[in-house]
Amino acid sequence: MEVIFLSTYQMHKEILEQPNAMELTLESERDNLDKIAEKISQLDKIYLIGCGSSLSTCYSAKSAIEMVCDVDIQVMTGYEFYYHKKLTNTNVAAIFTSQSGETADTLASLRRANEKGIYTVVITNEKDSTMAQEAANPIITEGGREEAILGTKTYITQLLCLYYILFSAFETSVSGEILRQLEELPIIISNLIKTTEEENKDLAYQFKDDDIFYCMGSGPNFGLSYKLAMTMLMEGSLKHACPLYSGEFRHGLIERVEKDVPVIFLNADYPGDELTQKSIEFCEKIETKNIIFNMKDYASINNLLSPFILVIPLEWFVYYQAHFNAEDPGSTRHIGKVRY
Predict the structure, then answer these.
(1) Neighbours of 296 (CB within 10 A)
(2) Mode of pairing for the β-strands spanning 119-124 and 92-98
(3) Which CATH number is 173's domain given?
């Protein structure tokens, strides 16, 4: 591989800061998280609301808890929630996720929930934000000021808080294991940051000239595939990308995918990954460029925690892919500049 001088972008610094952000968030918010979990354990329904990367954490947390517990959780974007004609407002909670605490559609949905008397929780990185001030219970993630658009520290601390709340609120066969391993994650992720950089730098160089990527996952990894496509690849390395559930491969993409088109598979041996494997086998036959991230190659913990693990090599992949195309992976062309 050609050696290229690397100037450090803000995203590089923020990738390295993720383990510390997780530790600080648990340290500062533990009592608050326990209180919220106790409240939610007594309710009948939970709404999870977010946009962009924050929405992806909602997808993953919902899938993780629903794989082991019969609980009523609904994920919506901000405006979906705002315009919904039949919101349940009795014995229900709404948890809103927003890095800035000012996301317009999420803020509008928070205000609607408050008007309807729904118990509201906000997970945000900004303690002085409007959403933190207006929610019944704010949770402040300790990521410090995050400048890169891709949301490294924000993503992983939001996901941490959602998992902690849900697996504390609902007793399942794996709740104790999940909560214990959440405490271990900062060390695991610190090691992954060190050990996965070079191999994904090489992988990024190999795929720097490809312009379209399909991103597939099942269970909690669908949320990560959504983040990978919608924010990491499209916003970070400026590539065309499409996320989809592994089970949906045979509806649409099976007719469109073709030789030499990159397909990224996220695999954690979930029941749904039987279909992930079948999709991999089909793609091998038609000679697509398969990129496979297997959780078991990176960590030996409960596979419901796969998004925490696989996001680290994916961050390095996108970071260096942007770099090799002379793009700052943390900057934007239009986000924050065009209002709608």
Answers:
(1) 12
(2) parallel
(3) 3.40.50.10490
Tokens 């214990």, located at residue: 180
Domain that residue 137 falls in: 10-191
Q: Report yes or no on 3 lying in a domain.
A: no
Q: Report angle CA 236, 164, 72 to the nearest 5 degrees.
A: 95
Residue 6, number of CB atoms within 10 A of its CB: 12
CA dist., res. 77 & res. 51, Å (int): 6
Structure tokens at 271: 């029941």
Helix axes 152-169, 175-195, angle to 10 degrees: 160
Query: Residue 31 falls within a domain, yes or no?
Result: yes
Query: Hey, is 71 helix, strand or coil?
Result: coil
Q: What is the pLDDT along the chain (340 residues), one digit of tens a residue?
A: 343 434 578 889 999 999 999 999 999 999 999 999 999 999 999 999 999 899 999 999 999 999 999 999 999 999 999 999 888 889 999 999 998 888 889 999 999 999 999 999 999 999 999 999 999 999 999 988 777 767 899 999 999 999 999 999 998 999 999 999 999 999 999 999 999 999 999 999 999 999 999 999 999 999 999 999 999 999 989 999 999 998 888 888 877 888 999 999 999 999 999 999 999 999 999 999 999 999 999 999 999 999 999 999 999 999 999 999 998 887 666 555 334 4
Q: Tokens 């450090």 map to which residue? A: 8
Among candidate residues 163, 191, 219, the one where a domain is terminated: 191
pTM, entire model: 0.94
Same domain for 167 and 28: yes
Do 182 and 84 reside in the same domain of the chain? Answer: yes
For residues 167 and 291, state if they share a domain.
Answer: no
| E strand or H helix that includes residue 311 | helix 306-324
Both 154 and 57 in one domain: the answer is: yes
The backbone region for 104, taken as left when phi is positive above 0, alpha when psi lies in -120 to 50, beta otherwise, is: alpha
Amino acid, single-letter form, for residue 97: T
Q: Domain total for the chain?
A: 2
Q: Which residue is associated with the tokens 């990738």?
A: 15
